[in-house]
Specification:
Blueprint: E1 9-17, H1 19-22, E2 24-25, E3 30-31, H2 35-45, E4 49-57, H3 69-76, E5 92-96, H4 99-103, H5 108-124, E6 128-132, H6 141-160, E7 166-169, H7 171-174, H8 182-188, H9 197-221, H10 225-231, H11 258-261
Helix pairs in contact: 2-9, 3-5, 5-6
């Protein structure tokens, strides 16, 4: 029997957040974390890598001082023994939080300030951060106007934040509520906040694509320009999969081009 080669690299990923990270669905009878599909996406893109992931979602948690989000993140990167050694770190930390804070009417600035403190912990431990914007919710009337205004303000601050090793994926734009067709909404949304199993798989697919793009970019940094050109010989070509309707969730793919990564 041929001896199996060890993986070229191990990628450790932490997905931390509230019930949307835990995969809450069906009033808590089902949990289906998006992390499962995300790992599949990374493994398909990098079969030579070993992917280790941790899902840390807590129902109802808040990023603000009333919640346990910051202490949980702190524990994830805390020293593990009496010798003062740190446990295994994470190459990537994916953060999704703030939905519950908005529901409790916390102001936008306080939510964003809390998120910065949360991001700072993995960043200070050499873990790259992929921050997700706060997704839409299916409120109506005055409640929708109030929460949408706060969410939009927080999301704009998230997208504008600049720091080394800090990246953003706009989950709010990627998986809308009101802009979906009725059929897509029925398939992917469980209630006005949470998703179905299919919806969490959709999150994992889209966030996974974003993470794969970032991993490709990191890998290309170590390659010479000549080798990059060999790896992307059809960079200016048009792929058949790019012709789908961008407004339909079941059509089209994200195509990563060398020129987009440089």
């Amino acid at each position: 029997m041929a001896k199996r080669e060890p993986p070229a690299k191990t990628i450790r990923i932490l997905c931390i957040g509230d019930s949307l990270t835990a995969g809450y669905s069906c009033l808590g009878a089902v949990y289906h974390p998006y992390e499962e599909k995300l790992v599949q996406m990374v493994e398909m893109a990098f079969p030579e890598y070993e992917v280790e992931s941790v899902e840390d979602g807590m129902d109802g948690d808040l990023v603000s001082s009333r919640g346990n989000f910051l202490p949980r993140m702190t524990r994830r990167f805390a020293k593990k023994d009496d010798d003062g050694k740190f446990g295994p770190s994470y190459d990537w930390t994916i953060v999704l939080g703030g939905t519950n804070d908005l529901a409790w009417d916390t102001n936008s600035e306080a939510v964003f300030d809390a998120l910065k403190k949360i991001w700072d912990i993995p960043l200070s431990h050499n873990s790259k951060v992929l921050a997700l914007t706060i997704p839409e919710a299916g409120y109506n009337g005055k409640t929708r106007e109030r929460i949408d205004a706060k969410r939009n303000k927080v999301n704009e601050m998230i997208k504008s934040y600049k720091r080394e090793n800090f990246h953003v994926f706009d989950l709010h734009a990627a998986i809308p509520y009101f802009a979906m067709s009725d059929a897509d909404r029925k398939e992917h949304w469980d209630d006005h906040i949470h998703f179905t199993e299919s919806g969490y798989d959709l999150i994992g697919t889209k966030v996974g694509m974003a993470l794969v793009s970032l991993l490709v970019k990191d890998k290309l940094k170590d390659q010479s320009p000549a080798k990059r050109r060999r790896n992307f010989p059809d960079d200016d070509g048009m792929f058949e999969e790019e012709g789908g309707n961008p407004n339909a969730l079941d059509q089209g793919y994200i195509v990563v081009r060398r020129k987009d990564l440089e």
